[in-house]
Design a protein that fits this description.
The complex is a heterodimer of chains A (about 475) and B (about 500).
Chain A (H helix, E strand, L loop, with lengths): L6 H6 L1 H18 L7 H20 L6 E3 L4 E3 L1 H27 L5 H18 L4 H19 L6 H32 L4 H8 L7 H18 L7 H8 L2 H8 L1 H17 L4 H23 L5 H21 L3 H28 L15 H4 L1 H15 L5 H15 L3 H26 L14 H19 L2 H10 L2
Antiparallel strand pairs in A: 1-2
Helix pairs in contact in A: 2-3, 2-5, 3-4, 3-5, 4-5, 4-11, 4-12, 4-15, 4-20, 4-21, 5-6, 5-12, 6-7, 6-12, 7-9, 7-10, 8-12, 9-13, 10-14, 11-15, 12-15, 13-14, 13-19, 14-15, 14-18, 15-17, 15-18, 15-20, 15-21, 17-19, 17-20, 18-19, 18-20
Chain B lengths: L5 H19 L4 H24 L9 E9 L4 E7 L3 H18 L8 H20 L3 H10 L1 H11 L4 H30 L4 H6 L4 H18 L8 H8 L2 H26 L1 H27 L4 H21 L1 H8 L3 H35 L10 H4 L1 H14 L6 H16 L1 H25 L7 H4 L6 H19 L2 H19 L4
The chains are: A mainly alpha (about 475), B mainly alpha (about 500).
């Protein structure tokens, strides 16, 4: 039965509506500002995020409410993902400010596009139907294509954006095709409905499996999982570092929501159908990511391959198909965002006008020039490698536990062995920072006090969340009961 | 009233002290040094009451502290010590003080960071020995790698990067498999608590796989043949202090792991695969002993000698079933374990001392080649005396600590199988051969060259360090009873756990 939207629906979607309205307002205000007044845009964007986060926090916690005839869901996962993405995007703005100013890229577009992307993340997080999901994905994707091309004088960035756009369009097409077939088979877009129409015969239905395969391609592409990862290193490498910083962080939360909504909620009863596909994708991602990262000399590329391998770990949690597994994947995603953001911010910290500190060699001897930030980078890197007591270790622990819990012991062993391979290239960064002498023309630590403080907090959080992870675990447990 | 958390204090005081020393910075190196020494001595001072208050009449855990850590995982911050952890904790705090003193003026590059790394390492190592929760143990066990990785990599020799990366990856590879085994057992038992793991019933296949996973971690750490190849590299490239801690404490973690985890948790698999471990141990004793004989580099020679000596530890641990089968009583088995433990403590002191001796020579002539020395005793008589004493202890001369452990293990292996004992006893010949030959070539003879002629004898600082070790080596050799008394009840308990099938 279809009814018109009610006031209650709008109350529930208040954060999204505010975010949309405020972003449009920022866009308009920015038009009337001179370059000297651009700080106004920056502060307005931060304020937008703060108010949006407050609106999300105001919604009742712990209940699952549907709105707009089931198109829109507000539940624990959505709430947590929205709050974290507000924080992440705000941190990305703070990190990027100096970098953008130094390069003459301090323009309103960056902030407006990032805010639109955040809206996309919100819509995906709260999607109750495949159509809402697709709409969110497109809002996010279009903002990202444009962000990559945003340094319009850079041919590399333009090339990356083109690559990203063409491949992304194909992936979106695959996703949409998958959605249409699923609709054809089941007769519904509604994710809640989908589950109930599948019971029992899901894994044997050829039509469904056909549609599922295309959905999986879309999800894997968005995540950057192998074998659909080709775009990721080029885009990470080609974009201005402040954009890479954005791409590596908040959107991952949305892709987690995408996988969770489609696979766990919509097709949860067909877990046997998609588990095998995800096993292949996860193993390939861990393999390709870790092995290819070994030979990279550019830090941005190396971190891109590290992203691919970490995505493999996130998928491990999802493929377990248990609430414990989803929780593990959510925990992994949040902590990964924290670590990736910190690592890319370190490149921003060392960059200055006309110089991108994105080669591994640029970190040479950092421990002698700036012991403090060398240690902060050590924390971030060791955490990404999964060495205790940092939070990255616990993220891996929970994921492996989820995989063992469903009896996939061999997969757990493969995962830990790949993490040993990964340790090698992470150690290389530590080696360059701590064991090598600084280059003749040493890179100096630039960046303002805010950047330094935030980066230090970010790295210390990686340690603190490892030793005292109770609060984050509890938040994740509340999100996915 | 809350009891004084002795174990938490000795675990976290050095870590906090290390952070403080690091914050003092290299610019104020002198302050950093004194602060580091103060923290190290305070930790030693605070660990002595553990011995004084230790009840030798029970195998139960003592000084237990417990607080929830990760409730959703059933993992607690759970510390406690028994007879096998206490001696190793004391050894750790004792050796760290000596390492700080030994590095006093020798370390010129980034001295504060050097001392800080050792203090943090000390705290983590004590934590490993005191942890009664599987996850806590694993976290500390792995965290330990980071300071050691930096110590070898920053202050090491020419090939330090190769050596330290090899060290890290070898141990990391071994450990991650242990992690899988720990999680597997957690999923079956619902808790990471050690006692829950002891009580867990496992089929033989499960036990064998879990045993192999633990074996990967502990055998690399010991290190056992054939996964020992990281050790000579790490030892040669590490700074003196790094070699000392590596040989004296870190290797012991493998032996400790066998006693604490493998034997009680997977008794049937340990029984099943005991023959394999015994064979590898005997190969280590004989083959690696022969390899030690031909080394040209003093540190490498001591490194190989360490592997051979640690072979005794694993031999003593895994003899138990053969002894029980041959004699029908568990007394011999306890003796084997006791020998293994005494050997660990003794080897900690002796190998540490020998690495310090090499360090003393290296600081003067900047070479570790045996051929570069000769007749050192003529210019350094006091040093010569120390070196000869430690060499004697290394070859197991009665009256030194080296004798007690080896003797107990050889005696225990006689009860199991004559040929085990026969093969193990060759070490008394081989050990004497490579150690005494080393002494002959380095210490005795004519003054070999101008470098040796210009040597100055040990200064007060070095004499203090070597003297303290000499005292400990002789005391333990003449009167090992305080140590064996501490060990006895716990090892009897371990043998009990081992003899109960979990099938």
């Amino acid at each position: 039965m279809t009814t018109l939207a009610t006031t209650a629906d709008f109350t529930l979607a208040a954060p999204e509506m505010f975010l949309l309205a405020a972003t449009c307002a920022v866009l308009l205000v920015d038009l009337f500002l001179s370059d000297r007044q651009r700080q106004v845009t920056y502060f307005l964007s931060l304020a937008t995020l703060a108010v949006t986060a407050a609106l999300v926090a105001r919604l009742p916690e712990g209940v699952r409410t549907l709105a707009f005839n089931g198109m829109f869901v507000e539940d624990g996962v959505a709430r947590l993902l929205k709050l974290v993405s507000c924080g992440t995007v705000a941190a990305v703005f703070l990190y990027s400010r100096d970098y953008l100013i130094q390069r003459g890229l301090f323009k309103g577009e960056y902030f407006v596009l990032a805010l639109f992307a955040t809206l996309g993340i919100f819509v995906i997080s709260s999607a109750g139907s495949l159509l809402t999901l697709y709409m969110g994905i497109e809002i996010l994707a279009l903002s990202q294509y444009t962000l990559v091309a945003f340094d319009r004088d850079s041919p590399v960035a333009a090339e990356s954006a083109m690559k990203y756009f063409v491949l992304g369009a194909i992936a979106s097409g695959a996703l949409l095709y998958g959605i249409s077939i699923i609709y054809g088979v089941t007769g519904t877009f509604d994710l809640g409905e989908l589950g109930s129409r599948l019971d029992g015969r899901a894994a044997t239905q050829v039509g469904l499996l056909f549609g599922l395969a295309f959905l999986m391609v879309g999800i894997a592409f968005k995540f950057g999982a192998a074998p659909f990862h080709m775009w990721l290193p080029d885009v990470y490498h080609g974009s201005p570092t402040s954009v890479t910083l954005f791409l590596s962080a908040a959107p991952k939360l949305a892709y987690f929501a995408l996988a969770l909504r489609v696979l766990a909620e919509g097709l949860g009863s067909a877990v046997s159908a998609w588990q095998g596909m995800l096993v292949v994708i996860a193993v390939l991602s861990m393999g390709v990511g870790n092995l290819v990262a070994l030979v990279q000399t550019n830090l941005k590329r190396m971190l891109a391959y590290s992203t691919i391998s970490n995505v493999g770990f996130i998928l491990l949690g999802i493929l377990a198909g248990t609430p414990g597994g989803y929780r593990a994947a959510l925990f992994y995603t949040i902590t990964y965002v924290l670590m990736a953001m910190g690592s890319f911010a370190m490149i921003v910290l060392l960059s200055r006008r006309g110089f991108e500190a994105d080669r591994i060699d640029d970190f040479r001897g950092l421990a002698q020039r700036s012991p403090w930030f060398a240690w902060m980078m050590l924390f971030l890197i060791m955490s990404t490698a999964g060495v205790p007591p940092f939070v990255g270790f616990f993220a891996k622990l929970f994921v492996i536990q989820a995989v063992l819990d469903v009896g996939l012991t061999w997969l757990a062993v493969v995962a830990v062995l790949f993490s040993v391979v990964g340790a090698f290239y992470y150690l290389r960064i530590v080696k360059v920072m701590f064991f090598d002498e600084p280059a003749a023309e040493p890179v100096t630590v630039s960046g303002g006090a805010a950047l330094r403080l935030l980066l230090s907090l970010n790295a210390l959080a990686v340690l603190a969340l490892g030793v005292f992870n109770g609060a984050l675990l509890a938040a994740v447990a509340r999100a996915i009961p | 009233m809350m009891a004084w958390p002795s174990l938490s204090v000795v675990t976290w005081l050095p870590v906090a002290g290390g952070v403080a020393v690091m914050l003092v910075g290299d610019a104020r190196a002198s302050l950093g040094r004194w602060l580091a020494l103060g923290v190290a001595i305070a930790t030693l001072g605070l660990s002595l009451p553990l011995y004084a208050g230790f009840d030798t009449g029970t195998a139960a855990m003592q000084f237990v502290e417990r607080a929830p850590w990760i409730p959703s995982l059933g993992s607690d911050y759970h510390l406690g010590i028994d007879g096998i952890s206490l001696p190793l904790i004391l050894l750790t705090s004792f050796m760290t003080v000596l390492v700080v003193i030994a590095g006093w003026t020798v370390i010129e590059r980034r001295p504060s960071q050097y001392f800080a790394a050792f203090l943090i390492l000390e705290g983590l190592m004590i934590g490993v020995f005191a942890a009664l929760d599987g996850l806590l143990f694993y976290v500390l066990w792995e965290a330990m790698l980071i300071p050691m990785f930096l110590i070898i990599g920053v202050w090491g020799g020419a090939r330090r990067v190769y050596a330290t990366v090899k060290f890290f990856l070898y141990t990391f590879l071994g450990s991650v498999l242990m992690l899988v085994a720990l999680i597997y057992m957690y999923l079956k038992s619902g808790s990471y608590e050690l006692k829950a793991l002891y009580d867990l019933r496992l089929s033989l296949t499960e036990q064998v796989l879990i045993f192999l996973a633990f074996f990967a971690a502990f055998a690399v750490k010991v290190p056992m043949f054939p996964v020992h190849t990281w050790l000579p590299d790490a030892h040669v490239e590490a700074p003196t202090g790094g070699s000392v801690i590596l040989a004296a404490i870190m290797l012991k973690m493998g032996g400790y792991g066998f006693l604490r985890f493998s034997l009680p948790i997977t008794p049937d698999a340990s029984h099943e695969l005991g023959g394999l471990v015994i064979a590898l141990s005997l190969i280590a004793v004989v083959y690696v002993g022969l390899v030690a004989l031909v080394q040209q580099d003093m540190k490498k020679l001591i490194a190989y000698s360490s592997i051979a000596h640690m072979g005794f530890v694993t031999l003593g641990c895994f003899l138990a079933w053969d002894i029980v089968a041959a004699t029908g009583s568990t007394r011999g088995a306890t003796m084997g374990l006791s020998g293994a433990m005494v050997q660990m403590v003794s080897h900690g002191l002796v190998s540490g001392a020998l690495f310090l001796c090499v360090g003393v020579l290296y600081d003067r002539l900047h070479t570790r080649e045996i051929a570069a020395y000769g007749g050192v005793v003529n210019t350094m008589p006091v040093f010569g005396a120390f070196m000869v004493l430690f060499a004697m202890a290394n070859s197991g001369l009665p009256g030194t600590s080296g004798f007690v452990g080896e003797f107990l293990v050889v005696l225990a292996s006689f009860r199991a199988n004559f040929w085990y004992a026969f093969t193990a006893a060759t070490t008394l010949v081989l050990g004497a051969a490579y150690t005494l030959w080393l002494v002959k070539r380095v210490v005795f003879g004519e003054v070999a060259n101008d470098g040796v002629a210009s040597l100055k004898d040990v200064n007060g600082r070095e004499a203090l360090v070597l003297g303290a070790l000499a005292l400990a080596v002789v005391a333990l050799g003449v009167w090992p009873k305080p140590l064996t008394d501490v060990l006895e009840p716990t090892l009897r308990h371990v043998v009990e756990l081992m003899s109960v099938s979990k099938l």
